[in-house]
Amino acid sequence: AQKITQTQPGMFVQEKEAVTLDCTYDTSDPSYGLFWYKQPSSGEMIFLIYQGSYDQQNATEGRYSLNFQKARKSANLVISASQLGDSAMYFCAMREGNSGGSNYKLTFGKGTLLTVNP
Amino acid sequence: EPEVTQTPSHQVTQMGQEVILRCVPISNHLYFYWYRQILGQKVEFLVSFYNNEISEKSEIFDDQFSVERPDGSNFTLKIRSTKLEDSAMYFCASSRDRAFGYTFGSGTRLTVV
Asked: For A90-109, what is the mean pLDDT?
């Protein structure tokens, strides 16, 4: 089973509108973290936002917010007031906790290609 | 803002040759990783490194791969005998701890011909 599922291969949004990028995850670990990264066409991976499994509130970072629904195992990224520069690939990723371990590797979804139209 | 630096940005190599990809993680970070992304596909974990040893490796990370932190600042990935299917973008990442996110380098695009 996929640990991270991003069901939207591509999304389009008009400039200045909000857009939600979906992410569902699968883990039996009670301690985990969820991350969103942006990958523009130049290829670098840019960290956007983080949500811990024990965090009571949804994470926000500027125009980015994470709609965390723990019972549904979903962690959707909401981008408000889209800008042309938001056009990129967006990856959801999960870090599962392992007590006493030092791994902390990330497992990525397949990504969603967001295109912002003027 | 501190960065993870990767060199070279692009490398073309002949099949069967050895390559070394270099990374300078952020200085106060403790956990180091290599990931790869085959063109158009998702990012895949290769190996994690902590306290001067490999803490986990994926099934991709076979005997052809090795990592080193030779001098306390550099973190290298070596592929001993490259194959065509090793062509990918290779990302180095580091983290201080899990609550702070992982900082990725800008990647090395490796092309094996």
From this structure: 79
Distance from CA of A88 to the nearest CA of B (A): 13
Test A104 with B95 for CB contact under 8 angstroms. Answer: yes
Q: What are phi and psi of A84, to 5 degrees?
A: -55, -35
Identify the burial level of B20 via C-beta atoms within 10 angstroms of its C-beta, where 0-12 means exposed, 13-18 middle and 19 or more buried: middle
Q: Which of A54, A53, A23, A17 is nearest to A36 (CA)?
A: A23
Which of A:87-106 have CB within 8 Å of B? 91, 93, 95, 97, 101-106
For residue B83, give the 3-state DSSP assignment.
Answer: coil
The per-residue pLDDT for range A15-38, each reduced to its tens digit, is 999 999 999 999 988 888 999 999
B99 interfacial to chain A (CB closer than 8 Å): yes
